[in-house]
Design brief:
With 88 residues, this protein is an all-alpha fold. The protein has a domain of 55 residues. The protein is 56% helix and 0% strand. α1 crosses α2.
Length: 88
């Protein structure tokens, strides 16, 4: 099976990957393989699967729409805060 080697990975990124892998009870290698596979699959689909989104929303009992999208929601700092990521 083919393999890749990632050089010059920042220590902070590697530490974060180790943490994510540990949370999911998997190796960093398995996490990378799963993540890369999902990235390739997502790019093949061509974006958001709205049919799946509708099925998931219905299964979760979500009937109402969210708030309207505004320019303020395009703020990268807001995205980092909502995702629980730290600023550099």
């Amino acid at each position: 099976m083919p393999a890749i080697l990632v050089r010059n990975l920042p220590e902070a990124v590697h530490a974060a990957l180790r943490g994510l892998a540990a949370e999911r009870h998997m190796s960093v290698e398995a996490l990378a393989r799963e993540t890369l596979s999902a990235l390739v699959e997502h790019s093949r689909r061509g974006g958001i699967d709205f049919a799946r989104l509708a099925r998931d929303r219905a299964a979760l009992g979500i009937a109402e729409e969210g708030p309207p999208w505004t320019d303020a929601l395009d703020d990268p700092a807001l995205s980092r805060r909502l995702l629980g990521l730290r600023d550099k």
